[in-house]
Amino acid sequence: MLLQHIWQNMGVNSNRVEDFCSQETTLRITTESVMPGMEIHKVCLPPKKTTLQKLKQRLGEIFFPDDPLYRFKNRTWCKKLLLGLQFLFPIFQWGPEYSLKLLRSDIISGLTIASLAIPQGISYAKLANLPPIVGLYSSFVPPLIYSILGSSRHLGVGPVSIASLVMGSMLSETVSPHDEPILYLKLAFTATFFAGLFQASLGFLRLGFVIDFLSKATLVGFMAGAAVIVSLQQLKGLLGIVHFTTKMQFIPVISSVFKHRDEWSWQTIVVGFSFLVFLLTSRHIVRISVLLMMVSTKRPKLFWVSAAAPLTSVILSTILVFCLKSKSHKISVIGYLPKGLNPPSANMLSFSGPDLALAIKTGIVTGILSLTEGIAVGRTFAALKNYQVDGNKEMMAIGLMNMAGSCSSCYVTTGSFSRSAVNYNAGAQTAVSNIIMSTAVLVTLLFLMPLFYYTPNVILGAIIITAVIGLIDYQAAYRLWKVDKLDFLACASSFFGVLFISVPLGLGIAVVVSVFKILLHVTRPNTLIMGNIRGTNTYQCLGRYKEASRVPSFLILAIESPIYFANSTYLQERLVHSPTVIFYLYLILRWIREEEDWIKANNEGTLKCVILDMTAVTAIDTSGIDLVRELRKMLEKRSFQLVLANPVGSVMEKLHQSKTLDSFGLNGIYLSVGEAVADISALWKSQP
């Protein structure tokens, strides 16, 4: 009573809670009830805000964490117009400072990535079961659009293996590219349009966090499984098999390889595996060159040769087949490719019919995958050159270029890692390198297409294998196993799902496992028993710090999660083991039972107080509030005191609004565990 009278005379309410902290933020108690020198701080409520103000702040944190309008504050209208143009079209940002020196570097890098983009475009179109010319079309228009809208200086834009694979596998499951080529092409362009629409919408609405559901673990397994399937599919070309399965599962592909052994062609095998060894060796040299250039500004001498290996392979194999055409009739070639610019394809977009759902589904899946790769690659090379890539602007740029591409005979494109690495290492300075690459592709489309007539299909298979084999990151899988077994499970589920079921279902399984992991963490939060580090006022986990020791008569628990409907039942069961009467009766706290067992075993004093350290409880809802109420009642029945330590502002506000704080009394809430232990211990000592 004396202590309560002192508190009341000092103008503090029963639980030391004030609506807002004044300048006097601490309260020094001079009675014997507190350790000498210990300050008992007021626990303050956050400043009062209206519901509209809270909603505005929350939406701003979710959708506008970078505050994009900050640069427009206190500016003239002319300056705002210029900043607006620079925001929408990054080319206006670096364009005025462009020089001949930068142009020289961009020309070199643009021509270098063109030597990679031309054979890759033809190969990846084949991977997507599309005509080879579509791959070249997709290396012409999209890079031009990205150079105007994109914020990355080093991103090399064009078709990529993973999106090509997914599009080819998803569409060919329903529509045969050989039996219905026109319908297949229409669905490919329509899927590309929806991929772009989805990507641009994410950027415009600033919903980029949606793609975070594809975790790194999921992508590692997915890309490895896809790489294995794609590589096995290329055995058709490498072995010269004519009749081959169209399925994308491991067992049918392997069965088809050995079933048609009579179709194997030794000429094709010699040519294919010879160039495959050459390409793999060149790829290894490129990887070493990239590593060396990240620590040095000098380019290794072999870099230029190895970077142009795909184009070199195409040229050499074409010449070889042309010279031996009378003796190499068993080696299949690309054949005729039409010359000219991209024909318009807006009339081929189909927004009705029974296959519309397939086009939308394919577009969304390929859109997410290509968006994830493009943004990750752009940010990787931006970090090496110490500049920022705006994720939302990248989404809009990639989305708009795919929408435009779908109307100009292109399929899904994004930033390619291999192309971007070559672009970076070749010395690219701005997005003009993409314009130079597009110009080189334009020249090829207008004048050089007849030269590809004798290009063997086997060389395209070798290029594809060389490209996708880099998607198998066994080191990342090993790290997942060492660090997080659930992440490894998601990785393995994705890998085997793609390998033995199908590409989209394998990806779906991996996403389900990832979401399950999130739900597991959400619904089963970590709870710890805390102890005092000797000689300090610090409290840490007993199982983690040997220096920490139990505080007599106290059980200190830390909850490392928000408390809401998804986990309140678990927390109650973790704290309270409850059988049912009507619904359930509250019984013994599990931690209390274990603590009391420990007390009996060590002949310590009786347990009197349970402290919940709520430092990591970032949010609470009505279910969580009910949990706190019921927990306090149950502990009170057993003559235990419940104390809350360091609740954050939003939690304090909801506890106050629900009148829950009123039931905690004088010594029910503290700013820290140390203050709670010190004040309550002193209070016990002052009592007779």
UniProtKB/TrEMBL annotation:
It is a multi-pass membrane protein. It is found in: Membrane. Residues 544-680 form the STAS domain. The keyword Translocase does not apply. InterPro entries: S04_transporter_CS (IPR018045), SLC26A/SulP_dom (IPR011547), SLC26A/SulP_fam (IPR001902), STAS_dom (IPR002645), STAS_dom_sf (IPR036513). The chain crosses the membrane at residues 183-207, 264-281, 302-322, 435-453, 459-476, 488-516. It comes from the Eukaryota. Keywords: Membrane, Transmembrane, Transmembrane helix, Transport. One of its GO terms (cellular component) is membrane. SUPFAM superfamilies: SpoIIaa-like. GO terms for molecular function: secondary active sulfate transmembrane transporter activity. Belongs to the SLC26A/SulP transporter (TC 2.A.53) family. NCBIfam families: sulP. This is STAS domain-containing protein. It comes from Salix dunnii.
